[in-house]
Design brief:
This protein has seven helices and four strands, in the order H-E-E-H-E-E-H-H-H-H-H. The protein is mostly helical. The two termini are about 30 Å apart.
């Protein structure tokens, strides 16, 4: 889903073969997806009190599964790590960004340049990051509005 939301994958990057009724990747699309996947696997994650790369965690989980299958472990632990898929750009906050006036933003302590950046990102479909203090100010505005 992240690959589609970020624009790494898009519908023109696929083609349909009529002989076996499957969609295929264009070579450039496949390479973009593999690069994105490689970047994701090389990102860090907290696991058992340590910061590890995803590929290392996957390897350790595979070893745990093997130990379970051969009877050297009673139960495999598939609960950790759980990836954090928190987005800071929900539909609600996008609406708030697009409806806030420059004077309201100034009253909240949000600079005009920050507001311009947020509006340009909120108009698009790609996920974007909202700096924590700004997100808190926008949340405060939303709570006072209702």
């Amino acid at each position: 889903m992240d690959a589609f939301e970020s624009g790494v994958l898009d519908l023109p990057g696929f083609y349909f073969t009529g002989d076996d009724y499957r969609y295929r990747f264009e070579p450039e699309t496949k390479q973009r997806f593999l690069d994105s996947l490689r970047e994701r696997f090389n990102s860090g994650v907290g696991y058992k009190g340590r910061a590890l790369k995803w590929d290392t965690v996957i390897e350790q989980k595979t070893v745990e599964l093997c130990r379970y299958l051969v009877g050297r472990m009673n139960t495999p632990d598939f609960t950790q790590p759980s990836p954090k898929l928190n987005r800071t750009d929900s539909k609600k906050i996008r609406r708030q960004i697009l409806t806030i006036s420059p004077s309201q933003a100034q009253m909240l302590g949000i600079r005009v340049s920050t507001l311009h950046y947020l509006r340009s990102r909120a108009k698009g479909s790609r996920p974007f990051e909202i700096y924590e203090p700004v997100r808190k100010r926008l949340k405060w505005r939303g709570e006072n509005r209702t």
